[in-house]
Amino acid sequence: MSKVLLFIAVLLGIWWMRRVMSDHGGAARSHEAEQPPKALGETVRPCAHCGVHVPESEGVIDAGGFYCSDAHRRLGPRA
Ligand SMILES: [Zn+2]
């Protein structure tokens, strides 16, 4: 009887491990799938100097506003 219980325990262990591993793989795949929309969904802001729209990560944020480049940040907002 104990051998049967051990057999069931081993089967449950294998099933549980496979379930955990497949869950992990699925999470990794969905995480990768989320990357492109995240990049596309990045905030694009207009440069306060020239008005060119630049992704927030590529521009320069200053107290006076957002700029497409450090050169325009130094020039400041267009009057
Ligand atoms: Zn600019």
Number of strands: 4
Please tell me the total number of domains.
Answer: 2
Q: In terms of per-residue confidence, which ranges show pLDDT below 50 for 5 or more consecutive residues?
A: none
Order of helices and strands: HEEEEH
Mean pLDDT: 83
Please indicate the percent range of residues in DSSP E strands (runs of 2 or more).
Answer: 15-25%
Secondary structure class reads: alpha+beta
Helix content: 55-70%
Q: Major sheet: size, sense and barrel closure?
A: 2 strands, antiparallel
Kindly provide the radius of gyration, computed on alpha-carbon positions and rounded to a whole number of angstroms: 27 Å
Tell me the distance between the termini.
88 Å
What does this structure look like?
The mean pLDDT is 83. The chain is built from two helices and four strands, in the order αββββα. The radius of gyration is 27 Å and the shape is rod-shaped. The chain has a two-stranded antiparallel ribbon. It has a two-stranded antiparallel ribbon with strand order 3-4. It is α+β, with helices and mostly antiparallel strands. It folds into two domains: 1-41; 42-79. Helix content is 57%, strand content 15%. The structure holds zinc ion. Residues 47, 49-50, 52, 67-69, 72 line the site of zinc ion.
Topology:
Elements: H1 2-40, E1 44-46, E2 53-55, E3 60-62, E4 65-67, H2 70-75
Antiparallel strand pairs: 1-2, 3-4
The structure holds zinc ion.
Zinc ion (ZN) binds at residues 47, 49-50, 52, 67-69, 72.
